[in-house]
Amino acid sequence: MTILKRYVLRLFISLKYITANVVDRNNGRIVATASTVEHSLKGTLECGRACNAKAAALVGEVLAMRLRVEGLEHGQGRGIHVDVTKELEKKGFKNQTKIWAIVNSLKNNGVKLILDDDNDGHGGNTSPPSF
């Protein structure tokens, strides 16, 4: 059975670290990942006790580069799905800028993202923050 939303972006955000994975839902494997835990990223960031939107954007940039290397920046023509509403509900409003920093960084680096809407009616704020 083939799943329509084959490639999905999953985000894990804690106070100290940010991790972004692209998961192939057909076989449950992570096809690309980037995290502030990695030595190469950790050395370039000044996170201290907490990572900020700048760190999140860098994670998005590295993930985009790794997707390009794997040839998956377009998700094999279907795109990579991300449900921003779900991510905001899971991570909380305080991480909104980090989530949008990753999404925008991926888009700016040529990754074809498909923003999924929450169609069950309770919606939420799925627009990027305005500064």
Summarize the structure in words.
It is a single chain. The protein starts with 6 loop residues before the first strand and ends in a 16-residue tail after the last strand. It is globular. Helices cover 33% and strands 21% of the residues. A hairpin with a 4-residue loop joins β1 and β2 (18-24). It is an alpha/beta fold and 131 residues long. α2 (53-70) runs parallel beside α4 (96-108). The protein has four helices and five strands. The mean pLDDT is 82. Strands 3-2-1-4-5 form a five-stranded mixed sheet. The protein has helices at 39-42, 53-70, 84-91, 96-108, and strands spanning 7-13, 18-24, 29-35, 80-82, 113-115.
Helix/strand layout:
Blueprint: E1 7-13, E2 18-24, E3 29-35, H1 39-42, H2 53-70, E4 80-82, H3 84-91, H4 96-108, E5 113-115
Parallel strand pairs: 1-4, 4-5
Antiparallel strand pairs: 1-2, 2-3
Features:
alpha/beta, single chain, five-stranded mixed β-sheet
Short description:
This protein has 131 residues and is α/β, with parallel strands linked by helices. Helices cover 33% and strands 21% of the residues.
Largest sheet: 5 strands, mixed
The low-confidence runs, each spanning 5 or more residues with pLDDT under 50, are: none
Distance between the termini: 44 Å
Number of helices: 4
Strand order of the largest sheet: 3-2-1-4-5
Helix fraction, binned, reads 25-40%
Q: What Rg, in angstroms, do the CA atoms define?
A: 14 Å
Average predicted confidence as pLDDT: 82
Sheet-strand content, in percent, reads 15-25%
Structural class: alpha/beta
N-to-C SSE series? EEEHHEHHE
Cα shape: globular
> Could you tell me the number of beta strands?
5
